[in-house]
Amino acid sequence: MYTLLSMLCLVTILSQASAKPPVTHIVDGSPAEECQFPSIVHLQFEVYDGIIECGGTLLSKNHVLTAAHCL
């Protein structure tokens, strides 16, 4: 049992060590023209240690839906 558990741990560690890093950018995307997607908004907030950027969806003239971690 101990040998099996040790082998499982070793395989898990080795598979993570050789895994590719996650892609942090858009793949095969294309730039959008201004006003091409009128319901999509870009939110940008300046904070003490940098800038936070998020996207959102325009629900009405005065309401935007965005992720909670953006606020």
UniProtKB/TrEMBL annotation:
Statement: the UniProt record of this protein carries the keyword Nucleotide-binding: no
UniProt keywords, alphabetically: Signal
Source domain of life: Eukaryota
Record has Isomerase as a keyword: no
Biological process annotations from GO: proteolysis
Record-annotated Peptidase S1 domain positions: 26-71
Pfam families the record matches: Trypsin
Any GO MF annotation of the entry: serine-type endopeptidase activity
Residues in the signal sequence: 1-19
Name used for this protein in its record: Peptidase S1 domain-containing protein
